[in-house]
Write a structure and sequence with these properties.
The protein is mainly β. The protein is elongated. Among the domains are: 71 residues, Immunoglobulin-like, CATH 2.60.40.10; 89 residues, Immunoglobulins (Immunoglobulin-like, Sandwich), CATH 2.60.40.10; 93 residues.
C-alpha cells in the first residue's frame, strides 16, 4: 500500500524571501501613489504657452518674448540653425534676403509637455519704392572770391531719403541718417584747384545725386585768413517709427477681453501709438494707449466672435494686429564744425606809406543743428598769415560770448595787428584786422 507524501516544508530563507518580495511590491506601489500625488498636486508645473510678438525692421525681426516654459527653441524658417529659448529673453534675428517667413516657437516644461506657435512675417521689398529727390540745390562761395581756405554754403531740399552722403572735395566724406526737408550746410575747402562737390541721397538701393565743380584759388604770399571752430552742445531728439505685429490666438470659447503690453525700445520713450489696418472681423473695440511714463503702450480689444466662426473670418487661428509705435530718444550731442574765411582790403583802402591795409573778413555762422534744444555755442578764432606756402598764427580770440553786445578787440603786439570782432544784423561775424603803425 502506497503512502501519500506530505507537502514539502519551506525553509526559513524561502519564507523570508517571499515576505521580502511582497513587502517590496507593496512599498513600490505606495511610493508610486504618493509620488504621483506630489507631482499632480504640488510640483506639477503649468502647461507651457508659446506667446510672443514680432516686429520687422528691414531684413531684421525683433521678437518680444512672453512665453512660459523651461526649455524650447526658435525656428525662423530661413534654414538657419535653431536658436535656444530662454525665459523672458527677447530675440533679434536678421534674414539673408527679403521674403515670406514664419517665426515658430516651441516650448516645453520639465515634464516634457509641449506647446508651439507660428507667426508669419513678410519681408518682401516694395516694388513701388519711391526714389529720393533733391530740389532747389545751390552751392555758393561765402566772402567773395573762393581763395583757399574757402568757405562754401550748400542749400536745397531732400525728400524720401534714408540717408545722405556728402562728398565735400574728396577728402571729407560725411553721412547723415534720416534727413528731412530743407538743408543748409557750411564747409571749408583748404586746398586750391578744381574740386568736385557731390551730394547723394539714398532710399534703399535707389540713389539720386547733385554734382557741382568749384575752382579754389591759391592764396598769395602775405595773405590773411581766419580759422573758426564752432562747437554746439545740446540735447538732440531722435524720432523713429517701430512697426510691430501683435498676434492674438483665437479662443475656442469663453473669450475674455484682450490686453497686450508693448514695450518701448531701450533708451526710447513712446511719443505716438497708431493702429494699422486689421483685416479680420473677429476683433472689435481695438485701441492702443500710451502709459503715463511713456515706457510702454497697451493694446486692448474684445472678441466679436470665437471658435470656428472667428477662424473663418480671420483665415487662420490668429488675428494679426499691426501697431506703429513712434518713439523718441534724447541724448546730449556735441557738434564741432571748422569754418574759414579770407581777408580782403577794407573798401579797397590802402593806408598811406604802407603796404598793409585795413582788412576784413565775413564769417557766416551755421544754424543750430536740426532738433537740438538747450544748445550752447563756443567759438575759437585764429588769424593766420600765409608766408612761404605755410600758415603762421598771428592772433586769436577765444570764446566770445554770443550775441555780442559790443565789438571785441584783441591786440597781438608781436606781429603788430589789432583784431576786432563784430556781430552783424544777420548773425554773421565781421572780423577786422588793423595794422598798428608803430609796430610796422
Amino acid at each position: 500500500m502506497s503512502t501519500a507524501s506530505a507537502p514539502a516544508k519551506k525553509s526559513g530563507f524561502g519564507v523570508f524571501k517571499a515576505a521580502l518580495g511582497g513587502f517590496a511590491g507593496l512599498a513600490t506601489g505606495v511610493i508610486g501613489v504618493y509620488a504621483t500625488a506630489i507631482v499632480d498636486k504640488v510640483a506639477k508645473p503649468g502647461k507651457p504657452i508659446a506667446d510672443f510678438s514680432v516686429k520687422a525692421d528691414g531684413k531684421s525681426v525683433s521678437v518680444q518674448n512672453r512665453a512660459t516654459g523651461q526649455s524650447g527653441w526658435w525656428d525662423f524658417g530661413d534654414g538657419s540653425s535653431l536658436e535656444p529659448f530662454e525665459p523672458e529673453k527677447d530675440v533679434v534675428h536678421t534674414f539673408a534676403k527679403p521674403g515670406h517667413y514664419a517665426v515658430k516657437l516651441t516650448v516645453r516644461n520639465f515634464l516634457m509637455e509641449e506647446n508651439d506657435r507660428s507667426v508669419p512675417v513678410d519681408l518682401t521689398e516694395s516694388t513701388a519704392q519711391v526714389g529720393p529727390t533733391i530740389t532747389d540745390f545751390t552751392l555758393e562761395s561765402i566772402g567773395g572770391a573762393a581763395t583757399a581756405p574757402a568757405m562754401f554754403r550748400m542749400r536745397g531740399e531732400v525728400k524720401n531719403a534714408d540717408s545722405v552722403i556728402w562728398d565735400l572735395g574728396g577728402e571729407k566724406i560725411e553721412v547723415t541718417d534720416s534727413p528731412t526737408g530743407r538743408f543748409e550746410k557750411l564747409f571749408v575747402i583748404e586746398k586750391s584747384g578744381p574740386v568736385q562737390i557731390q551730394m547723394i541721397g539714398l532710399a534703399g538701393k535707389v540713389p539720386v545725386n547733385k554734382v557741382s565743380m568749384v575752382n579754389v584759388l591759391a592764396p598769395a604770399n602775405g595773405a590773411f585768413s581766419v580759422s573758426l571752430k564752432v562747437i554746439d552742445t545740446g540735447t538732440q531728439v531722435e524720432r523713429k517709427e517701430f512697426p510691430e505685429t501683435v498676434s492674438l490666438p483665437i479662443p475656442a470659447k469663453d473669450a475674455k477681453p484682450v490686453e497686450r503690453i508693448l514695450k518701448a525700445q531701450p533708451g526710447y520713450t513712446i511719443a505716438e501709438a497708431k493702429l494699422g489696418a486689421v483685416k479680420s472681423t473677429a476683433m472689435k473695440n481695438l485701441k492702443v494707449e500710451i502709459a503715463a511714463d511713456k515706457q510702454s503702450a497697451k493694446l486692448t480689444g474684445d472678441w466679436a466672435s470665437t471658435g470656428d466662426a472667428a477662424q473663418k473670418a480671420s483665415g487662420g487661428a490668429e488675428v494679426m494686429v499691426p501697431v506703429i509705435l513712434v518713439q523718441e530718444k534724447a541724448k546730449t550731442t556735441t557738434r564741432p564744425m571748422d569754418l574759414s574765411a579770407t581777408f580782403s582790403a577794407e573798401g579797397g583802402f590802402v593806408m598811406q606809406n604802407t603796404a598793409n591795409p585795413v582788412r576784413s573778413a565775413i564769417v557766416q555762422l551755421p544754424s543750430v543743428p536740426t532738433g537740438m534744444t538747450n544748445s550752447t555755442r563756443k567759438l575759437q578764432f585764429e588769424i593766420n598769415e600765409m608766408s612761404g606756402g605755410k600758415k603762421t598764427v598771428i592772433g586769436a580770440v577765444v570764446d566770445p560770448k554770443l550775441p555780442l553786445k559790443a565789438s571785441i578787440t584783441s591786440v597781438t603786439t608781436r606781429q603788430g595787428y589789432t583784431i576786432e570782432v563784430m556781430q552783424q544784423a544777420n548773425g554773421s561775424l565781421r572780423i577786422v584786422l588793423t595794422p598798428q603803425l608803430n609796430k610796422l
